[in-house]
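sry for the spam today, last one i promise. struct tokens for design, 535 residues
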């Protein structure tokens, strides 16, 4: 009897080229958003834009890129990550070039706030998705390498922008940045379909290797080294937003129930589901399938409802039900039925709102301290250098403390609150450089762990849609709250009050998550609602 074959990801080979493509795209895209304030702060002042106007433009860019998450899942499903990445490169490049000629609030809002951000959102969704499909066992290494290279962008770009503005002015500098962003087309070309590089492995069922087929990895001594290892704080799963937090991470996700142990049968079932999802992707089938139990429950519910409805009303009810079911299935809105996921998502959105606004407003905050463009560039480069160093160190800190990803992320939020607050008390350049180092340390730890919070809770086959919902909520928060920070600056005449508001919003995340973790820990076990996945 010849052994059966199983299809597995390459876990190397062309996958390392995917890592390079991921790094190249994010190396270009993230600094474009981060340094917008550095480029146009003097232009905004010359055009007499208020702080509210500048805040609306900046937050419009962040919000639209996140709203793109709502369509990223369906686009990735029907067109594939390669075509989506090409579209993202086109929109971003055209948007940046058009922004160089913007001379009004409306023009900035359209070119930078809509066109550029639409391309960024597409790119931020397609590359992490490709990385997840190419790697399984080596995913943490691949994500770590990609994010480390990505971290070089915020270090180099502020200094390059300062140099270009001095030589060519704002318009010339932005045109050159637009040509640099065109290199994302090269990255898109490197995203070959995973089925071209997947390999076959034998399955020896007589020796019990069928379990390996279902899970892709062994479960040894009660631990998993695959997709759902909640005890491994290193980056196993990344589908973002990192966005350095500023832009990437937003695809992040975590393990909510501390101390609970997943049984062997549950682990095998979870991993069988993950393998079927991966296999369906490389064979060209829909990658966002729901679990068998969900499908069975839905069928039973449909039959019961059909029996209760009068014959003359069946056709009408069925029509509207099909529409609603289609919408729910496309965007996987059943995720919103899980209260733990909702709490995680809302907490992430609050933290993302605070972090993105602080990062994007940093050049304007430092401008209030009367720093020159060159000094602001030095501050941002120093911050980013400390950030990239602690991205490398953070996993070792997590290993030493042996804490779940969400706990480590909460620790990083505490550090961010403290370091932002110190910014209020220091004004000299060298004191501010010390604050930049402290901010970089906190950001480095945060960047590693916030990309793990949702993936550690949501099954891999539902992760793209979960990330899409997360980005949409992020966009709503940013769109609604961003202009408020600009209004506070206009009323008070200082960005210091904005720092207070940003810290309060971050504290709300800590309060929500701490309350949930304590509730789930001490609530009677029989009353605990079954989460999306075992922990």
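last one done:
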């Amino acid at each position: 009897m010849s052994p059966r074959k199983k299809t597995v990801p390459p876990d190397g080979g062309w996958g390392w080229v995917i890592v390079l493509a991921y790094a190249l795209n994010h190396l270009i895209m993230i600094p474009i958003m981060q340094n917008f304030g550095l480029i146009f702060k003097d232009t905004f002042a010359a055009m007499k834009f208020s702080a509210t106007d500048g805040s609306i433009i900046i937050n419009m860019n962040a919000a639209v890129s996140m709203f793109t998450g709502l369509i990223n899942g369906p686009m990735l499903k029907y067109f594939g990550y390669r075509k989506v990445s090409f579209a993202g490169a086109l929109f971003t490049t055209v948007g940046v070039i058009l922004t160089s000629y913007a001379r009004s609030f409306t023009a900035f809002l359209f070119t930078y706030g809509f066109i550029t951000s639409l391309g960024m959102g597409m790119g931020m969704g397609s590359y992490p998705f490709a990385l997840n499909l190419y790697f399984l066992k080596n995913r943490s290494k691949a994500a770590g390498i990609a994010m480390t290279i990505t971290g070089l962008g915020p270090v180099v770009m502020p200094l390059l922008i300062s140099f270009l503005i001095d030589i060519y002015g704002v318009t010339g500098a932005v045109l050159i940045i637009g040509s640099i962003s065109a290199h994302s087309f090269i990255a898109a070309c490197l995203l070959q379909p995973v089925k071209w590089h997947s390999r076959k492995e034998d399955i020896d069922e007589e020796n019990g290797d069928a379990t390996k087929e279902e899970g892709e990895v062994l479960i040894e001594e009660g631990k998993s080294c695959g997709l759902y290892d909640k005890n491994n704080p290193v980056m196993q799963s990344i589908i973002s937003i990192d966005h350095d937090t500023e832009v990437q991470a937003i695809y992040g996700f975590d393990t909510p129930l501390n101390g609970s142990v997943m049984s062997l049968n549950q682990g095998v079932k979870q991993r069988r589901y993950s393998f079927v999802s991966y296999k369906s992707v490389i064979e060209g089938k829909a990658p966002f399938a729901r679990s068998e139990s969900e499908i069975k429950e839905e069928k039973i519910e449909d039959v019961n409802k059909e029996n209760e409805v009068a014959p003359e009303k069946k056709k009408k009810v069925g029509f509207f039900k099909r529409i609603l079911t289609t919408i729910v299935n496309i965007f996987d809105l059943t995720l919103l039925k899980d209260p733990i996921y909702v709490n995680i998502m809302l907490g992430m959105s609050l933290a993302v709102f605070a972090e993105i606004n602080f990062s994007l407003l940093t050049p304007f905050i430092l401008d209030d301290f009367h720093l020159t463009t060159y000094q602001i560039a030095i501050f941002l480069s120093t911050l980013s250098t400390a950030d990239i160093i602690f991205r490398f160190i953070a996993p070792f800190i997590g290993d030493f403390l042996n804490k779940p990803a969400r706990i480590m992320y909460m620790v990083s939020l505490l550090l961010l609150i403290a370091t932002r607050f110190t910014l209020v008390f220091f004004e000299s350049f060298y004191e501010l450089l010390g604050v930049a180092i402290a901010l970089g340390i906190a950001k480095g730890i945060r960047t590693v762990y916030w990309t793990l919070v949702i993936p550690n809770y949501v099954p891999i086959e539902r992760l793209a849609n979960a990330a899409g919902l997360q980005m949409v909520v992020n966009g709503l928060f940013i769109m609604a709250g961003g202009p408020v920070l600009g209004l506070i600056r206009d009323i008070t005449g200082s960005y210091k009050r904005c720092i207070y508001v940003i810290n309060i919003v971050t504290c709300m995340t800590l309060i929500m998550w701490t309350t949930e973790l304590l509730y789930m820990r001490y609530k009677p076990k029989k009353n605990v609602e079954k989460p999306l996945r075992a922990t």
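The longest helix spans residues 69-99. ok im logging off now
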